Amino acid sequence: MNVSHDLGIWVAALLTLFVFSFLYKDNPLYKFAEHLFVGVSAGYYIVLNFWTVVMPNLIDPLVRTFTGVDPVTHAKVVQVGGPFAGSIGDYRAWFLIPGILGVLLFVRLIGRGEWLSRWPLAVIIGVYAGLKTTGFAHGDLVAQVQASLQPLWTGDLWTSFNAIVFTVGLVTSLLFFFYSREHKGALGVAARTGIVFLMVSFGAGYGYTVMSRLSLLIGRFQFLIEDWLGIK
Amino acid sequence: MRRGTPSWLFALVLTSLLCAAPAVQAQAEPPAAPRPPSGLMFADIPDDAGSAVKLDWRLSPDDSAGVGVVTGYVLERGDSPVGPWTLVDSLLARTSTTVDNRIKRNHAYFYRITAYGPGGTTPALASAGPAIGRESWFNSTRTSVLVFLVVFFLLVLYYMSAAQGGKKPFVRRLAGIDAIEEAIGRATEMGRPVLYVPGIQDIDEIQTVAALVILESVARMTARYETPIRVPVAYPIPFTIAQEMVKSGYVNAGRPEAYEPDSVSFVSPEQFAYAAKLSGIMLRDKPAAHLFMGSFYGESLLLAETGFATGAIQVAGTANVHQLPFFVVACDYTLIGEELFAASAYLSGEPRLVGGLKGADVLKLLIIVTILVGCVLETFGHHGLTQWMQTQ
Questions:
Q1: Alpha carbons B151 and B157: distance in angstroms, whole number
Q2: In angstroms, rounded to a whole number, what is the distance separating the alpha carbons of residues A2 and B33?
Q3: Interface of B with A in 23-62 (CB under 8 A)
Q4: pLDDT (tens digit, 9 = 90+) per residue, A60-109?
Q5: Final residue of a domain: which of A77, A95, A111?
Q6: b vs e for B233-259, b when ≥16 Cβ sit within 10 Å of the residue's Cβ?
Q7: Nearest CA of chain B to the CA of A121: how many Å?
Q8: Domain span at residue B236?
Q9: Are residues B237 and B269 in contact, defined by beta-carbon separation less than 8 angstroms?
Q10: Residue B379: beta bridge partners?
Q11: What is the CATH number of the domain that holds B107?
Q12: Are B359 and B159 in contact (CB under 8 A)?
């Protein structure tokens, strides 16, 4: 046994044990690890987003546009056209619009102007709904339907059987998600068949995912035993 | 030489080496540089944003299989026929086509190609250009996507207007969604709060949007039953929207004064920090009902198992296929896939939303018909429908 002399490994190992102590019951050690984890990760996320999103995507282009100097390299930027011309490869002063919308999100902290914060929220939801609609229609709807079109008889018994089972499973699973009719009669039989297909796939997925989670647990134990305690 | 080797054998070996020497000397001479490729042609790639040009050329006459005079080709691009040149790609021998997909649209480029080998590089014969990548207003390979979207929107708009006109479509009972009210009722009886978890993704995930829409209906119920609700949120924008939704639920229930701003809290976007916090809430605040709606990943089983251990009634809904098994196992009711999106219409009873649900049902029928017709056509060797739906 060769216990680690690395402070970082000791901190990680103790925090791991603190989290594992939750398996017994909620206790002050778990609470300490939980609050530390939440606080550090939230702070890290805010700082990371400020420097990787707000600065390069908003502040830097606006500074470049209105001062004519690149804030990163401090080199002079050739200004072609006006601040809204967009001819030097970025959107230049147009970034004022998302900037203002971003600031409006914080207005909710001031009691009386709270309603103004709903405007950027409406823009955000509207933009993402629009983007996702075409994305889903292309990637999930048409592409998956197209991939499902296959010959039901290929000359080979097992390939044909596989294609027929796949198509029956697909159609009946779709019928399970039919809401404007009661699941009775033929529709009921089809929907029940569909849920059987879904449950079989869930069972397979469950087993597969549990195995991957166990491998994560094994990795954590390996860290404790090998890296921390030095038992090899 | 070992003792005992016959002298005649030594003489034979020496003679052989001496005879072979001129041949070895001839092989050591450096080969000539390969002759350049010719006929460099360019063509704008259709159905794109003007960011790619296809290039074809005739191979160098020295580029034959097994000869080894040509090692590869160097494709270069410039803004004028005389350069300066920028490397586009280095290609293997026997390659006569490539796509340059790193160009600016509507910008004129000139290309040249040279062959290189052990003997060096011969200058290119000439440059080709100007090659201009033009953006296409319509991607013809996605016509099928447009058709499906137009049909979907027409169906939804038709059934929405019909529902608003008084023809509200029938929606069958959904046990998982009915269980939400049952769970809130149980929490009310026990005098404990309801925990609503709107997934661990940001607002760009459509399941988070669905979860926040459902939250409004859930908040309306909790306001009506006078039961506290706890909504821990992982990202800042959904946090803001969740506050609006809960507030709106309380206002619509006629109890705006009962709304507590602290009922919605920001936790952390870090997946397992969020899961750790929720586990703590489940054990310390002891909510009687856990509602998991939205997008979940590896933390789903941690949350559902911890919640199960507390004895709370649990209803989950997600479209993340890999997490559904865990919710099915550990929760009392699970909304599977699209049921999550149907829940908001079902709970609100809003004619427009219910009309949209009916429109989606009719689209599903169209999809089933398309699949069956497509499979039959494929069986008989007709690939027209499959090719029409092939997109880029």
A1: 10
A2: 62
A3: none
A4: 888 888 888 888 888 887 776 677 765 555 567 788 899 999 999 888 88
A5: A77
A6: bbbbbbbbbbbbbbbbbbbbbeeeeeb
A7: 7
A8: 168-349
A9: no
A10: none
A11: 2.60.40.10
A12: yes
CA atoms of A108 and B232, how far apart (whole Å): 19
Of the pLDDT bands very low, low, confident and very high (cuts 50, 70, 90), residue B3 is very low
Nearest CB partner across the interface for A171, out of B174, B280, B371: B371
d(CA B278, CA B66): 66
Q: Which of A121, A129, A145 sits opposite B367 (nearest CB)?
A: A145
- Count the residues in chain B: 392
Q: How many CB atoms lie within 10 A of CB A215?
A: 9
Name which of A31, A45, A148 is nearest B268 (Cβ-Cβ).
A45
Distance of alpha carbon B249 from alpha carbon B245, whole angstroms: 6
Q: Rounded to a whole number, what is the distance in Å from the CA of A53 to chain B's nearest CA?
A: 14
B31 pLDDT more than 90: no
Q: What's the pLDDT tens digit per position in A150-194?
A: 999 988 999 999 999 999 999 999 999 998 889 899 999 999 999
Domain residue limits at A65:
1-77
* Residue B67 · residue B60 · CB < 8 Å: no
Inform me whether the C-beta atom of residue A138 falls under 8 Å from chain B C-beta atoms.
yes
Same domain, B102 and B225: no
Considering chain B, what is the average pLDDT of its residues? 86
Distance from CA of B385 to the nearest CA of A (A): 8
Contact B172 A182 (CB under 8 A): yes
Gap from B139 CA to chain A (nearest CA, Å) = 12
Examine residue A93 and state whether it is found in any structural domain, yes or no: no
The answer to whether residue B249 is domain-embedded is yes
B361 vs A contacts (CB less than 8 Å) = 178-180
Distance CA B291, CA B257 (A): 24
- Closest partner residue to B244 (CB to CB) among A121, A174, A178 is A121
Query: Do residues B181 and B97 share a domain?
Result: no
Q: Is residue A154 part of a domain?
A: yes
Alpha-carbon gap, residue B279 to A180, rounded angstroms: 38
| Cβ neighbours of A182 in B, within 8 Å | 172
Distance CA B366, CA B388 (A): 16
Domain C-terminal end among A15, A48, A77: A77
Q: Are B151 and B160 in contact (CB under 8 A)?
A: no
In a domain, residue B184? The reply is yes
Residues 133-152 of B with CB under 8 A from A: 142, 144-145, 148-149, 152
Q: Give the span between the Cα atoms of B100 and B75, in whole angstroms.
A: 9
Q: Which of A146, A170, A210, A217 to mutate to test the interface with B (most CBs of B within 10 A)?
A: A146
CB–CB contact A152 B379 (8 Å): yes
- Within a domain: A83: no
Q: Phi, psi at residue B264, to the nearest 5°?
A: -105, 125
Total count of domains within chain A: 2
Q: Say if the ipTM goes beyond 0.90.
A: no
What digits encode the pLDDT tens for the residues B240-297? 999 999 999 999 999 999 999 899 999 999 999 999 999 999 999 999 999 999 999 9
Query: What CATH number does the domain containing B192 carry?
Result: 3.40.50
> How many helical (H) and strand (E) elements, i.e. helices and strands, does chain B have?
11, 14
Pick from B24, B132, B127, B32: nearest CA to B82:
B127
If one counts the domains in chain B, the total is: 2
